[in-house]
From TrEMBL:
UniProt-listed InterPro entries: NUDIX_hydrolase-like_dom_sf, NUDIX_hydrolase_dom
Pfam family, any one: NUDIX
Keyword Hydrolase in annotation: yes
UniProt source species: Roseivirga thermotolerans
Protein name, as recorded: DNA mismatch repair protein MutT
Hydrolase found in the keyword field: yes
Amino acid sequence: METKTTIIDKLAWLEIVDGKILVARSKGKDTFYIPGGKREPGESDDEALMREIEEELSVALLPNSLEYYGTFEAQAHGKPEGVVVQMTCYWGKYQGKIEPASEIEEIRWLNFADKQLVSRVDRLIFDDLLSKGLLS
């Protein structure tokens, strides 16, 4: 019998400063994740990512600066087996001051040694960033 895979389509914004990546933790959760979120019906990658980042971090991504980095898939954190997160990642410049908004309880800058604090799909992204010399 074939197992049906459910895909959760998410977008993520990569912001790295001095070899550390920006991550966020939602209220009541124990895991950090690279900021971003799910697309609303009819939204493009850019529209969804700009909306999610503004909702979570109070900053505006600059649309002309968004640059595709890569897409990663892994078992979704805290979901039944077979539920997979597909994370499409972008670089992008922003304006404003990064601070937690809406459901975000904490933001933090992590390096590779902190990988155990993030979700499975984010661990794949951490590995990829490290392999390219972007994460310390």
